[in-house]
Amino acid sequence: MQGGNAERLFIPESTDEIAAILRDANEQGISVTISGARTGTVGGSIPFGGYVISLERLNKIKSIDNDAKLAVVEPGVILGELQKAVEADGLFYPPDPTEWSCQIGGTVATNASGARSFKYGATREYVQRLTVVLASGDLVNIRRGEYVSSDEGVIVIGETSIRVPTYERPNVRKNVSGYFNAQPLDAIDLFIGSEGTLGVITEIELSLLPKPEGFFSGIVFFDHEVDLLAFVDAARDASFSSAKNPVAIAPGSDHQMALDASLIEYFDSNALKFIAEKFPETPDAAGAIFFEQETTDNTEDALLEQWNKLLETHNADLENSWFATNAQDREKMRAFRHALPLAANERYSRSGFRKISSDMAVPVGEFRSLLKFYEDQCGPSGIDHVIFGHIGDCHLHLNLFPKNIEENERARHIYGRCIAHAIMLGGCVSAEHGIGKLKRKYLAAMMGERYLNEMADIKRAFDPKRILGRGNMFDESYL
Ligand SMILES: Cc1cc2nc3c(=O)[nH]c(=O)nc-3n(C[C@H](O)[C@H](O)[C@H](O)COP(=O)(O)OP(=O)(O)OC[C@H]3O[C@@H](n4cnc5c(N)ncnc54)[C@H](O)[C@@H]3O)c2cc1C
Question: Is residue 16 in some structural domain?
């Protein structure tokens, strides 16, 4: 998002300082934008007037408890640094939204997810406790399970009472379109993904996993999309059923473990051409899949064999595909995956027009319809585009790169039609990037007036003067 301005920037070093800033802003009715590392893609931390609170100096990892598998951090801790610190202790923090320079507070505020959310879920699953400073300057400590809605759908936190919104959540694997709701609703889940509109998160307790022993990764190429999609369906189904029926492998056992991908990522043929600018060894293909699988010494051989069988069944181009079982080759594969946004951004900076980028997810059964719609809309348009991303979660990014005003206009119409189609299929308008200031009208299209008003009731209850995150999620007219 371009533009933005503010009257004052605060870089506090403690929760108490934040409370004092908010008390002052609240008294005067001054808007406050909360800034993490500003890697968000929907303008959530861009201010339009008022105060900015930047969390960069609240950047301590307070503790990592190896026995309890818990970390307590301040919000300004950089994700990549936390990941390194816990790995050094033999632990693993799975949320990984590709951009490791973001802050933990930012990832909680956006419920960030990414490729490996396919197996491990989004940030929400790891948040056990939050300290939040409300707009009034009051502090609340919310531990998971402590503030849960009543049978009547009401949650009381201190002096604030809110009603759980009644919208039905789309049946998708990832969704950050609006406030979380569930019946019963845990208050902690309301703050996770609230995009700086309900309070400033100043301390976070996160649960951790044991570091996996090993990984097997593959980037596999297909000559025919039909084979690629059938492979994805089979890998997804197998992974879902392993997740439901985990098989414990005793040391020395020769039990055949069922395959269980930790990520399944897609590149269409245009995306491969983009990546070939950085990785010239990339073959010409209809598309490719990047997958990873956790392994142990006991399971590695059996799992490799099962993946190989599945790939053969679905006619993958095994000769030109790449596989890795060591950290060095695995990093090369991750670099391959990252080469795409990099090349895309370079293309965009050359053309001078903003890339148009989608973030919708749909129910598993509707995925092929959405992909076909993207292809039918974009192919004949002649506008440069790529389709890539989290195919395991039925969540692909469509990026359009208009080169002139006329293409820009058409690309925007294509994007609008794709959003409408995703909503029609029962999907959500944002699966991981959030709504921020850029996607408000799409949230309104997905939710409708009634449910936006239910969200606005919550916002007003916590922030009666509407000072926090002004412009994020919903239009001022709802407040
Ligand atoms: C190349 C690239 C790839 C990306 N890929 C993914 C991806 O795969 N998956 C994904 O989920 N996201 C992805 N993102 C976007 C992602 O949302 C951010 O990386 C991250 O979650 C935001 O963290 P941040 O610290 O930069 O927050 P900011 O961008 O600074 O803020 C994001 C929002 O959170 C609010 N906020 C920040 N800190 C706090 C706090 N302490 N308390 C309350 N509110 C707060 C802000 O007001 C704002 O509304 C990507 C971004 C880039 C640039």
Answer: no
